[in-house]
Design brief:
This protein is of the alpha/beta class. It has helices at about 10-15, 20-25, 50-60, 80-90, 105-120, 125-135, 140-150, 155-160, 165-175, 180-185, 190-205, 210-220, 230-250, 270-280, and strands at about 30, 35, 65-70, 75-80, 95-100, 250-255, 260-265. The chain is built from 14 helices and seven strands.
């Protein structure tokens, strides 16, 4: 499927079915008993503990991210979201939010999704879900998605990372209770518990974005082992760690010796996260285009 280079205004280049554009963005409620797994699903191992945690979240907050299915007769076959479907079954859910595809024209779906991104006033979670669908359903890379929607690769990666936040925070983003500016600093925190603690303070105290950034900085610094005998140089290095961690949205550790030599360690969580960091550091090279 060749979609590269189309950019904005796809409708001016290739006529797109308005009904398809609308359907690609519309979430339907479908009976869970009519949903069946994809027989070509490559993933066979769904951890029970992971499913139970997701089921508990669904019972409390509902299913935040819709699944995607293909309609076959009066039944639905999962295209993306089997883990969510399995967890919803455990949670006793009767209906699932879903994007329903009635055809298997991947290229047309990609056109419709891109048109939605440009034409709809999407909230950050809806935008992230649109990017995720382009990657999962249309087999596009983050770079291809960036080219299609006219944004940078790092912008796509950072928007997708919002989907890693706990469901309660995603819901607040979706409903406009907090802004994307409030949510982004939370990604620097290493655990969902810490993210939820800061989120609750945002709600209770009405913190602005700068206050959230300062609060996250205190959380990250308090997680760093400290010593009452830190030298001025060591204190400065801890401050540099905090600054780099915040700007890179990644854990950063700096080690040095008495002669001033040392190393900087930046933790990444996936190949996509590594590519995001390389782009932020202006270190991306042709050799690193794909992992």
């Amino acid at each position: 499927m060749k979609l590269r280079g189309l950019g904005r205004g796809l409708g001016a280049i290739l006529p797109v079915d308005e009904g398809l554009i609308e359907r690609s963005h519309t979430v339907q409620e479908i009976p869970i008993e009519k949903v069946e797994p994809n027989p070509y699903q490559p993933r066979l191992d769904f951890g029970e503990e992971e499913l139970e945690e997701l089921a508990a979240s669904i019972r409390q907050h509902g299913l935040i991210q819709p699944i995607t299915v293909r309609q076959i007769g009066d039944r639905y076959q999962i295209i993306a979201g089997e883990r969510r479907w399995r967890a919803a079954q455990k949670a006793g859910v009767q209906h699932l939010p879903a994007y329903v595809r009635t055809a298997d024209n991947t290229e047309m779906l990609a056109f419709a999704l891109v048109e939605n991104v440009h034409r709809q006033n999407l909230n950050p979670i809806e935008l992230a879900l649109a990017y995720k669908r382009l990657i999962e359903e249309c087999q596009l890379s983050q770079e291809q998605v960036a080219e299609l929607v006219g944004k940078s690769r790092s912008t796509i990666a950072n928007t997708l990372r919002l989907l890693r936040l706990p469901p309660e925070i995603q819901k607040a983003l979706k409903e406009g209770i907090i802004s994307e500016g409030h949510a982004r600093p939370l990604l620097a925190l290493s655990s969902s518990d810490a993210q939820l603690q800061v989120f609750k303070q945002i709600r209770q105290k009405g913190l602005n974005v700068r206050q959230v950034e300062a609060l996250v900085s205190r959380y990250t610094s308090s997680s760093t082992p400290s010593s009452p005998l830190l030298s001025p140089a060591e204190v400065q290095l801890r401050e540099v760690e905090k600054t780099l961690s915040y700007h890179l949205h990644a854990e950063v550790r700096i080690n040095s010796n008495s002669k001033g030599r040392g190393e900087i360690r930046i933790t990444f969580t996936s190949w996509e996260d590594l590519e995001r960091l390389l782009e932020l550091l202006k270190a991306k090279h042709g050799a690193y285009r794909s992992f």
